[in-house]
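Appendix B.2, paired examples.
Example (i):
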Amino acid sequence: MKSATLALGSSLRFDSHTAALEGQPENQRRLSSLPGCFADDAAYRAALAKGDPVLYATSGVETATGDGQLHYVIGTIEPGKIGNEYYMTKGHLHAWRPAAEVYIGLSGEGMMLLQDEETGECIALPLAAERVVYVPGFTAHRTINTGSEPLVYWGVLSSAAGHDYGSVADSNFALVAVEVDGKAQVMQRAAWLQRMAQAK
């Protein structure tokens, strides 16, 4: 049956491995759009000097407005690292802070960092195929690919949510996801920065 988009609703095909969404443009985020996100700034600048790869991309339907309406976005994060830190999204809060969001893993392996805006408490939760992550309101969130294949996922949120990237850029997350001895490990950002300093 052919997909259809009607005033009463919509039915779109998507690819669970490439994050392509029928009829929707792809929004790409390149390495150059993530200054300050990675803990190892020297590694970031060195990688950027060699090129400006696409780290992640999204396609979504964000046209509905009004009480009770939803937006939905499919995203893919490429595998890779800057220094020892895995490729990730910029991370954001919702402009309308009470808005929650649900992430649904489709393929690949990764995690999400969730940080309470008020208390600063930060946790890491797994995101992979057949996993769902609930992000409460008032919570900054970042998605990270810790695997060797693209991490593909859905995000479903209120149409009123909006995005606030600036607040995250100002303070960043308290945790980082890095490769240590060939395995993904979550560490306090301050501890990782100290470890890098001692290694120099």
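Example (ii):
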Amino acid sequence: MDTENTLAQAARKAAGIIKYAAIGANAVGTLTVLILVVVMNIDVVARGVFHAPFLGVVEIVIFSMILIVFLQLPDVVRVNRLTRSDGFLGLIEGARPRFASLLSRAIDLLACIVMATIAYATFPEFTEAFESCHYFTPPEFGPPLTGDFWVDFWQATARCHYFGTLGVFTVPWWPAKFAITASTAICAVLFLSKVLFGSEPIEGPSMAEHPSDTAPTPGGDETP
């Protein structure tokens, strides 16, 4: 019994970590959308009023779309808002609920495999892009380390594999690679949890599950 309670508590804690990771990533993705809106409005004003377009808008939009899609994907999966055709499932759910549940879990298992495959395939790309910066190792080219954290950090960032156009806009590739890898890994875990425990939205531990919530209140019925 104690083992079952321990496993249940561990599962609730894991669900809570997954939930807040997905919500946090969604919040960062939403912030990215707001920043993108500001940048595009600045470009519109600059073109219309000053006849001087904001350089790098196209590159910023492309890079931001990668972040937005993959940062918001885990929370979409968590709350069952991922676009899919479930008309057949809805049709047979009333007549054959067990078969519908089994088919839904099979679909979630397939999605888990796809997401895990993407995470596995993109992880080496992320590590290669990150290691190209030489944040923690001596650089193969460029100025040597100075010992000043911020100077070395910006010099390392300038050495990273980059996305964009030189002289217009460039940004290190590794944040986008990390977003893709981390997002698909979280989605794989979410889909696996749906396979094991059903397709209900993933929730963390709630206060109602705390033992103190079931304690008798003062003035209540007590056994003499």
